[in-house]
Design a protein that fits this description.
By secondary structure, the protein is an alpha+beta fold. It has a four-stranded mixed β-sheet, with helices on one face. It is globular and about 60 Å long.
Length: about 190
């Protein structure tokens, strides 16, 4: 083989959340409030990371990050068949064409990335239409797999149909991007009121 390595630059960006609360609230419920706030902040930061990774366009809104939407090379986007213009009209061949467009690399861990609503309206709809369902597996729900690959939900992708918008991604994120963490999340208080 003849591996080629390009330059990769990882630039540290700071993400932050700011919350203002009252001194009285801190005095009576500081542990409960701190627990709740750190959980909410973690969810918010994770959502921002997803937004940058998938939708980043290099602007300050995304911390200068170019995500998959912007960084995909020409020919990397697979259009659905004519007339298949929504989650409700995508068919199996649309998804198979997407899988077929990705070059197979040994050791890659390919998967689908889609909004949960989009998954239910398209992939789950197609799985249900395949037949063979029983009352029990309908009650239990199906596994989070589609065409043999795991499905990962990301709520920063479209939940409704939008013409000329990428509805789902297929690939191995490890082969396309890097997210570095300099330090864990920290919480500070100015002790004010």
């Amino acid at each position: 083989s003849t591996p080629k390595v390009g330059d990769v630059e990882l630039v540290a960006k700071t993400m932050a959340a700011l919350v203002k609360d009252s001194m009285g609230l801190n005095m009576t419920s500081i542990i409960s409030i701190a627990d709740w706030l750190t959980t909410e902040m973690a969810y918010g930061l994770a959502d921002k990371e997803d937004a940058c990774g998938f939708n980043g366009d290099g602007t300050s809104t995304f911390g200068g990050i170019s995500g998959w939407k912007t960084a995909l090379k020409a020919g990397s986007v697979v259009d659905a068949a004519s007339g298949n213009v929504s989650f409700e009209t995508f068919d199996l061949q649309d998804f198979r064409n997407t899988v077929a467009a990705v070059k197979h690399v040994t050791g890659a861990e390919y998967g689908w990335f889609i909004n949960k609503t989009g998954y239910e309206k398209s992939m789950q709809r197609l799985k249900d239409a395949g037949g063979g369902n029983s009352n029990q597996n309908i009650a239990d729900g199906s596994d989070q797999m589609f065409l043999g690959y795991p499905v990962h939900y990301t709520q920063v992708l479209p939940s409704s149909d939008a013409v000329s918008t990428i509805q789902a991604y297929f690939g191995d994120l490890r082969m396309s991007s890097t997210l570095g963490t300099l330090a864990g999340m920290s919480v500070e208080s100015n002790g004010g009121g």
